[in-house]
Amino acid sequence: MEIVVIGLGYVGLVNAVVLAGYHHKVTGYDLNVSKIARLKQGEAVLSEPGLQELLNKNKENLIFTDSAETAIKDKEVAFVAVDTPENPDGSANLVHFYAALHQIAKFATRPMSVIIRSTVPVGTNRLAAAYLKEESPLAFNVISQPEFLSQGRAVKDMKKPYRIILGVAEGETKKTVKALYAFYTKKHVPVLYTSPESAELAKYASNNFLALKISYINEMARLAEKVGADIDEVATGMGLDPRIGKAFFKAGIGYGGSCFPKDTKALNWLADKKHTPSETLKATIKVNQEQPKLFVDKINQRFHGVLTGKKIAVLGLAFKGNTTDVRNSPAYPIIERLLSYGAEVVAYDKSAIEEFKKNIDANEHLTYSNQLLSAMKGVQAVVIANDAKEIKTLKPSDFIDAMDKPIVYDGRNLYKPLAMAKIEYHSVGRPSSR
Ligand SMILES: NC(=O)c1ccc[n+]([C@@H]2O[C@H](COP(=O)([O-])OP(=O)(O)OC[C@H]3O[C@@H](n4cnc5c(N)ncnc54)[C@H](O)[C@@H]3O)[C@@H](O)[C@H]2O)c1
Q1: Which residues span the domain enclosing 36?
Q2: Ligand 1 first shell, C-beta below 6 A
Q3: Confidence of residue 395 (pLDDT cuts 50, 70, 90)
Q4: How far apart are CA 13 and CA 62, in angstroms?
Q5: What is the structure's pLDDT at 86?
Q6: Which of 48, 106, 422, 430 sits at a 20 to 30 Å CA gap from 10?
Q7: Domain of residue 403, CATH code
Q8: Which ligand 1 atom is the nearest neighbour of the CA of 262?
Q9: pLDDT confidence of residue 132
């Protein structure tokens, strides 16, 4: 099929590259001119495992352009995968989304299926269909297909998702998506047809449930610290029950990224607006916002409330390992709070420093390093903020070599406390080694 993918971020680019591997002819369109220039040179632009290789492999079926007209004209299917960031009141901002619809209405030359992959508020699918009907004489078949991929494993998730949900309104056809996704049927991926509203809510409800699990285990971790339990043992014990499951049950400094923080707020906004406030959602958000602050407060207490002049290395600036995405990274509140207590911060990341710097004020007490071992050299404490591979594989001897008196605050529970017995080691919801 002739497909255009509008918006080439984590969702759009991965969709484009994977679909091109299933004999579809895919045109990727983005208004970011430099991104398109790099893609035209064959550069995958995102650090997603397997993406570069797949881009090389499927290049025969891929075209990239920054011209909306070239991208959209003559296509049978349009994927909308633009960003839907949060407004100051927590609601979803649909400016980019409607700009994409406007481009479709303007440049479409034949009836089209429009598949909405962006995360949009419940009801948007029908509003989008009405908008296109008003803007263009052509017939559009608008389908809501929320995306469930996780950054860091996006290609894998896109190739074999746990399920696909297709929200199809009454009177719309399923024919196009059936043909488009024949490869999923062959792979036995569960395909669920629902109303557009159910598909849209299923997306938000799924993300919020995963965020709830994280906040729940973090709350239990706080209690575990008080009563001498080990949250990893607790989570393992709970997770062995298939009714509960072990996924998203890792205690730490909270969730970040471009989805959970904004999607929890957007659903909370919607629930309030519909006069059915969600108390679990409000608690999820609150616990998550407190988590990095409480962690820094533990460090502050350890140094008897005097962090002024103490040199502290923060390792991992992206919101999680295996990505350069810094959106809503817990490293921000961690560093900001350390600075507010007067600490001297050395911020380490292998590849996310330039992105990170864009969202934090320059500060003479904040320096950066992309060299892991030298970032730790001579500091009074190390704070682990994400699970990047090179951080995960640090050994106790690395901390001993770098610091006079090693003190490690592991915000991701990356190491076994027993393995760290030789140094002062603190983590989340587990006994400390001193
Ligand atoms: N990142 C994830 O893990 C993930 C997972 C599931 C769902 N989602 C949802 O998918 C959507 C996209 O997320 P993302 O992380 O890929 O976003 P992103 O910010 O990485 O990329 C969005 C891209 O869209 C482009 N764009 C914006 N407006 C455009 C327009 N009018 N025409 C052409 N290009 C335009 C931007 O230049 C950018 O390259 C969001 O709604 C998000 O909530 C994201």
Answers
A1: 2-194
A2: 6-12, 29-32, 35, 81-84, 96, 99-100, 118-119, 147, 149, 151, 258-259
A3: very high
A4: 11
A5: 94
A6: 106
A7: 3.40.50.720
A8: 43
A9: 98
